[in-house]
Amino acid sequence: MPDTVLTAEHLTKVFTSGKKSYTAVDDVSFAVKKGKCLGIVGESGSGKSTIAKLITRLLDTSDGTITLLGEDITHVKGKKLREAYQKMQMVFQMPGESFDPRRTLGDGIGESLSNLGLGRQEIRKKVEELLITCGLTPEFAFRYPHEVSGGQCQRAAIARALAVDPELLICDEATSSLDVTVQGQIIRLLSELKDSRNLSFIFISHDIALVQLFCDEVLVLYQGRVTEMGTPDEIINHPKTDYTRRLIDSVL
Description:
Elements: E1 4-17, E2 20-33, E3 37-41, H1 48-55, E4 63-68, E5 71-72, H2 78-85, E6 88-91, H3 105-115, H4 120-133, H5 150-162, E7 168-172, H6 180-197, E8 200-205, H7 208-214, E9 217-222, E10 225-230, H8 232-237, H9 242-249
Helix pairs in contact: 3-4, 3-5, 4-5
């Protein structure tokens, strides 16, 4: 098993509209180690979510390469992309986006298991186990997204992401729509999963205080470029740029 789960090299994304072009991600490189969490911080519009979409192939790169567990996935499509999604999953900012509002949480969590060919009883058992792992009772399998709180829905969304037993979870502002108390609970859950499953994470946030709680390494983005990189303590205690200082001052 490779020590490095994901590598991004010289990642670039240019959006073009008519004669105008805009570089959202500008020559960004990083690696995520097995069982570690890389935090990506920056203000709105700094390119954080675009990086998440490039890694998960929701957007095509303009330049650069993405390697997942030793395999180049920069341009994969179809079957190869589905195989990549068994190794990495995403947890979104708005928990409800992970679920079809007309179907139960249990249906949503079990969907990928059904796609893998598991039987109904096996899926039901696995869904119960995943709900318990994520701090919910099995009864939540029968609830609809609108019947649960934001924090409960995000726990179910994490259970859904874990269903295929991925190596990497990409959390794109996964706590920013939740109140402060619930944010702390979700961070504790993610930390437990990181330790118990040796899971790797990319944790995207504008809140450097949350990143300090959870991440092993931090990449600071400004206008699509990496301005500095280091441990959370290095970044917070010895920021190299005024931009990073402002980010720190806004939350600490």
